[in-house]
Amino acid sequence: MQEPVIIVGAGLSGLRAASLLMEQGIACKVIEARNRIGGRVLSASVRNQESLGRFDLGPTWFWPQYEPNISDFVKKLGLETFVQQNDGDLLVERFQRKPPERCKMQENVHERGVRITGGMQSLIDALAKTIPSSIIELETRVKKICLNPAGKLTVEVEKAEGERQQLSAANVILALPPRLVANHIEFSPDLPAELMVDITEKPTWMGSQAKAVAVYNRPFWRESGLSGLVLSSAGPLQEIYDASPIDGAGALFGFFGINSEVRHQMGQEKITELVTNQLIKLFGSEAENPLEILYKDWSNDSETAVVEDSSPFKNYLSYGEPQVIGVWEEKIIFAGTETNAQFSGHLEGALQSAETAVDKIMALRK
């Protein structure tokens, strides 16, 4: 009996690779360091008010007109979707001491992104149902991958309580940010120097970013003809969007213009105070008391980012599939959104990379 394929990472790429392998009757095991599945897909609820819905602190939308894989997959899973709400005027905030400018927005509705009802976590939840839960090991960290002279592949993992195990593998799919591979997994023999340079230079998507979502009882800004969309050079949020569910609660989410080092120094309490003040300035007194401001700083997440990710992106051209040569060729395969050149950073890229990885596994078994 052939050894299973070990998949490192239970984000969208890793889970999709597992589901595709299972469809082909190929045994696999998913190893995840976090205590949850989903990776950078993360939807959160207001404490003790889950009925208001889930709000995305990671990816929020996709574009069916350009991204066929994610569009078809969402339909296959039977998930409900809705078009991102952008109707109404745009606010432009240029100066801290001056009110924002209100602008008419010329927009083609067919270019809008599409969101999933219940948040992107609904995609992960539905995908997980296609995989036996027994093949996913949470709070388990891959420490070392070894290839002996006879070609036997073993993966050393560490459980949360510190226990270490050796797992035999036919192949390993590395479905996590390449920089995490370079920084946290030991290889014996060493990976080729060119490969290490390549994966070290691939910035982790969202690795320097933080996201805040302010949740309200209703999307009150729409009542005055505002879309919720804001472009700001005064901060702290530099882009703001309507993050409300299809009905019920209102929500505004934003990306920060403050760099990760300054965010870390400020701390979450100060940051949420600044966010609230900015929203009051933009949308008036009704923005003063959000039910909660949900906050996620991805640069602080050790299962996502490394120190090098703290700086803003400078090397987009490095995205794409790492080329594995030498003794590791056909033994390890990279997946994840950073390894897809065309759709890097998108859910589409994550899915396409999983399909590419499984195609390689299938080709090796012919």
Describe the structure.
There is one protein chain. This protein is of the alpha/beta class. It has a domain at 1-42 and 117-204 and 309-365: 3-Layer(bba) Sandwich (FAD/NAD(P)-binding domain). The protein contains 8 helices and 20 strands. The strands form 5 sheets. Strands 7-6-16-17-18-15-19 form a 7-stranded mixed β-sheet, covered by helices on one side. Strands 9-2-1-13-20 form a 5-stranded parallel β-sheet, with helices on one face. Strands 12-11-10-14 form a 4-stranded mixed β-sheet. The longest helix is centred in the C-terminal third of the chain and has 18 residues, at 347-364. The radius of gyration is 22 Å and the shape is elongated.
Quick recap of the structure?
This protein is α/β, with parallel strands linked by helices and 366 residues long. Helix content is 23%, strand content 26%.
Fold topology:
Layout: E1 5-8, H1 12-23, E2 28-31, E3 43-44, E4 55-56, H2 68-76, E5 81-83, E6 89-93, E7 101-103, E8 114-116, H3 121-128, E9 136-137, E10 140-147, E11 153-159, E12 164-169, E13 171-175, H4 178-184, E14 186-188, H5 193-200, E15 210-216, E16 226-232, E17 237-242, E18 250-256, H6 260-266, H7 268-283, E19 292-297, E20 332-335, H8 347-364
Parallel strand pairs: 1-2, 1-13, 2-9, 6-16, 10-14, 13-20
Antiparallel strand pairs: 3-4, 5-8, 6-7, 10-11, 11-12, 15-18, 15-19, 16-17, 17-18
Helix pairs in contact: 1-8
Defining traits:
7-stranded mixed β-sheet, 366 residues, 8 helices, single chain, 26% strand, FAD/NAD(P)-binding domain
Structural class call reads: alpha/beta
First and last CA, distance: 16 Å
Please bin the fraction of helical residues: 10-25%
Mean pLDDT: 94
Strand content: 25-35%
Order of helices and strands: EHEEEHEEEEHEEEEEHEHEEEEHHEEH
Write out the CATH superfamily name of one domain. FAD/NAD(P)-binding domain
The CATH architecture of one domain comes to: 3-Layer(bba) Sandwich
DSSP strand tally:
20
